[in-house]
Amino acid sequence: MSHVKAGGTSKNNRDSPGQRLGVKVSGGQKVKTGQVIIRQVGLTKRSGVGTSLGRDYTIFANRDGVVTFNTRRVKRFTGASTGRTEVTVI
């Protein structure tokens, strides 16, 4: 006969894997066409010349070249302007 009382079921034992977001290629590095440069949630960094924005806000290269990061002023909905990082492939 068991000497341990029945344990209840656990409800909070689920966990999802990480999404592996972030910068995949640093500034000054070479990229090929279609290579992912940044994976992000929302439009924290903008795509510039030589890059495109995916449906899930992934920035990827449109052509072979070297990645550069620079800041750009962007107007917000309120009219205030803030700096945003722009990714380009030259």
Give a verbal description of the structure.
The protein is mainly β and 90 residues long. The chain has one domain (22-89): OB fold (Dihydrolipoamide Acetyltransferase, E2P). It has strands spanning 22-23, 30-31, 36-39, 45-47, 51-53, 59-61, 65-75, 81-89. The strands form two sheets. Strands 1-3-6-5 form a four-stranded antiparallel beta sheet, with no helix packed on it. β5 (51-53) and β6 (59-61) form a beta hairpin. The termini are far apart.
Defining traits:
mainly beta; 4-stranded antiparallel β-sheet; 90 residues; 4-stranded mixed β-sheet; OB fold (Dihydrolipoamide Acetyltransferase, E2P); 8 strands
How would a crystallographer describe the biggest sheet?
Answer: 4 strands, antiparallel
| Counted beta strands | 8
Order of helices and strands: EEEEEEEE
Our count of helices gives 0
What structural category characterises the helix and strand content?
Answer: mainly beta
Compute the separation of the termini in Å.
74 Å
Low-confidence stretches: none
**Lateral strand order in the biggest sheet:** 1-3-6-5
Cα-atom Rg, whole angstroms? 22 Å
CATH class: Mainly Beta
Mean pLDDT: 92
What is the 3D shape?
elongated
Structurally, the number of domains stands at 1
**What do we call the CATH homologous superfamily?**
RNA polymerase II/Efflux pump adaptor protein, barrel-sandwich hybrid domain
CATH architecture, by name, is Beta Barrel
- Beta-strand residue fraction: 35-45%
Helix content range = under 10%
Task: State the CATH topology.
Answer: OB fold (Dihydrolipoamide Acetyltransferase, E2P)
